Amino acid sequence: MNVHEFQAKQLFAQFGVPVPRGKEITSPEAAAAWASELNTPVFVVKAQIHAGGRGKAGGVKITKEKGAVAGIAKELIGKTLITHQTGPKGRKVHRLLLEEGANIAKELYLSILVDRDTGWPTFIASTEGGMEIEEVAEKTPEKIIKEAIDPAVGFQGHNGRNVAFALGLQAMEPAVINPFVQMLGNLYRLFMEKHAALVEINPLIITKEKTLVALDGKVSFDDNGVFKHDDVQKMRDLNEEDPLEIEATANNLNYVKLDGNIGCMVNGAGLAMATMDVIKLAGSEPANFLDVGGGATKDTVAAGFRILLKDPNVKGIFINIFGGIVRCERIAHGVIEAAKEVKITVPLVVRLQGTNADEGRKLLAESGLKLEVANDLWEAAQKIVKLTGKAA
Ligand code: ADP
Ligand code: MG
Prior knowledge:
Number of helices: 14
CATH superfamily of the largest domain: ATP-grasp fold, B domain
Number of domains: 3
Shape: elongated
Helix content: 25-40%
Protein name: Succinate--CoA ligase [ADP-forming] subunit beta
Bound molecules: adenosine-5'-diphosphate, magnesium ion
Largest sheet: 6 strands, antiparallel
Distance between the termini: 30 Å
Low-confidence stretches: none
Structural class: alpha+beta
Radius of gyration: 26 Å
Pfam family, one: Ligase_CoA
Pathway: Carbohydrate metabolism; tricarboxylic acid cycle; succinate from succinyl-CoA (ligase route): step 1/1
Strand content: 15-25%
GO molecular function: ATP binding; magnesium ion binding; succinate-CoA ligase (ADP-forming) activity; succinate-CoA ligase (GDP-forming) activity
Binding site for ATP: 46, 53-55, 99, 102, 107
């Protein structure tokens, strides 16, 4: 789960990481009021969307005129921002962060995430702040500094000093070394206590006043840990999430929307992955990952159909069920009942295997529904790909 920059900065402040004075606003009137209270030589108005690259896309506006703030807010609210992270459709701006301008002397990059290779929380830092870190990693990998933290020991001062000296802070601005080490300790605490998956500050700046300030903030949480934190749950912004994924969550379905045109309904995450692979192997692309779970009922199957059919890219549906805990004739009944409730407008291929598979296939074949039944995974994949045509 992702949160907005202003929410990330609230968490930073809570954990002792310095941020500019600022507030979330949702109207030009509120912007004008907060601008008066903020009373700063430079105002920065920032679009809040769950995507980076806002600066280059016109989503970060800087002004010295207090009177201009409301007008900028009016222009940004309701605007659709297209950045390199939003995709071509862009994202509509519903809220802004209005904060004080900082005197930037130097922009750095700093983040913490779990390194998949070692399984340890790891700081990533670079002198190339404000840039896209992926690009830095690709073109100048020597400029990426990594420091892994042994979770059994926790963050230690020497971890922070390793990063500080590798960045060359002693040459850049020695006054910030101690606050920097302290900041890393605070970010580590935030990362661990809130079950974050990523905490990123880009840019972390050294100001002309020789202080450190987190000028941007991104925090993603591990979805499996969110239920432990009421404050984090409240930060969820459904405007920023795919409506089909929200509906799926409400129905206890594990659904991830993808870009292909074959809707998949599968039980078990492993089989769902295999199904996506086999669709690709047969020459097309899956429109989604959907795991209806071990105990799929008529209602879950119906909810699954509804969600799949709401995606305009779906040109066919592939149901692939292995009856282990759940029996195949039950699934067949579920499909038949669900098909009565939800009008299926695209070709449907069903592959059933496992307990009572023969009975299930027979029920489907005699149901009068327009569908094709297959025994074998490869045969089924080829069938649905043939019926839907090649992926665009
Ligand atoms: P994004 O990463 O989405 O482009 P950032 O928050 O990183 O958005 O802002 C982009 C750039 O705008 C920063 O690199 C910085 O140069 C400038 N900027 C952002 N916030 C401030 C601020 N409060 N004061 C001064 N400059 C800022
Ligand atoms: Mg940024």
